[in-house]
């Protein structure tokens, strides 16, 4: 079995032949791991659960303070994108996929400084019912990920303004049917492993 250094060299040679530029063809934002298969062929294995190539690309280019919206199925995602944002639609069928599933996956791949939910206006009929049930699931997911962050609701219209900002880099549109299920992540800094 070849060493990681040898595998990295083979990977770099292969990427140069395919037209990729630079010393390291792997995005620096993510922790990558080179390994060998039993047949001796090299392949790259991500150290997180996120597999979607377009989402991975956007996150790899994002920096500190960038904002990522995980939108529920009712959110007007196509008309509220920030000027630098990309929309990825994962809304396959009602309830598939959910904001919780995307949040759980993203938290394996990116550092997060802040997690905002869309606050319910006082005049909304749902405002008197307390926090939406799905927020308890978000709290469980955040806690299980090891983050010491609280969900912070922000006013509905300030939420829309935050999504329309130049810091917004990605909206992931889900088909989540929960009401008030939108989550806005503010990316943190990657520190040494």
How would you explain this protein's 3D organization?
The chain has helices at residues 4-17, 53-61, 99-106, 133-144, 156-163; strands spanning 32-36, 42-46, 67-71, 86-89, 112-118, 151-154, 168-173, 183-187. It is α/β, with parallel strands linked by helices and 193 residues long. The chain folds into 2 domains: 4-46, no CATH class; 53-187, RbsD-like fold. Strands 4-7-3-8-5-6 form a 6-stranded mixed β-sheet. A two-stranded antiparallel sheet has the order 1-2. β1 (32-36) and β2 form a beta hairpin. The chain is globular, with a radius of gyration of 19 Å.
Chain-wise SSE layout:
Layout: H1 4-17, E1 32-36, E2 42-46, H2 53-61, E3 67-71, E4 86-89, H3 99-106, E5 112-118, H4 133-144, E6 151-154, H5 156-163, E7 168-173, E8 183-187
Parallel strand pairs: 3-7, 4-7, 5-6
Antiparallel strand pairs: 1-2, 3-8, 5-8
Name the assembly state. single chain
- Tally the helices: what do you get? 5
The CATH topology of the largest domain turns out to be RbsD-like fold
What is the makeup of the main sheet? Answer: 6 strands, mixed
The domain count comes to 2
Please state the average pLDDT score: 81
Helix and strand sequence: HEEHEEHEHEHEE
For the record, the CATH class of the largest domain is Alpha Beta
- Sheet with the most strands: spatial strand order: 4-7-3-8-5-6
List how many beta strands DSSP finds.
8
Q: Approximately how much beta-strand content do the residues carry?
A: 15-25%
Class by helix and strand content?
alpha/beta
CATH homologous superfamily grouping of the largest domain: RbsD-like domain
Which term fits the overall shape?
globular
CATH architecture of the largest domain: 3-Layer(aba) Sandwich
Query: In terms of per-residue confidence, which ranges show pLDDT below 50 for 5 or more consecutive residues?
Result: 1-38
How helical, in percent, are the residues?
A: 25-40%
């Amino acid at each position: 079995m070849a060493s990681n250094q040898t595998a990295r060299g083979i990977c770099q040679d292969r990427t140069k032949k395919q037209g990729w530029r630079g010393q390291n063809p792997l995005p620096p934002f993510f922790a990558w791991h080179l390994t060998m298969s039993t047949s001796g062929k090299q392949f790259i294995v991500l150290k997180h659960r996120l597999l979607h190539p377009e989402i991975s690309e956007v996150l790899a280019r994002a920096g500190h303070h960038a904002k990522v919206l995980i939108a529920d199925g009712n959110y007007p995602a196509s008309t509220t994108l920030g000027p630098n944002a990309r929309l990825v639609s994962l809304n396959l069928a009602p309830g598939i996929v959910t904001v919780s599933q995307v949040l759980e996956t993203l938290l394996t791949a990116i550092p997060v400084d802040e997690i905002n939910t869309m606050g319910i206006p006082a005049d909304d009929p749902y405002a008197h019912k307390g926090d939406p049930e799905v927020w308890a699931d978000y709290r469980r997911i955040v806690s299980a990920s090891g983050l010491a962050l609280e969900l912070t609701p922000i006013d509905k219209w300030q939420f829309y303004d935050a999504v329309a900002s130049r810091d917004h880099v990605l909206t992931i549109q889900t088909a989540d049917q929960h009401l008030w299920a939108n989550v806005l992540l503010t990316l943190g800094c990657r520190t040494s492993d």
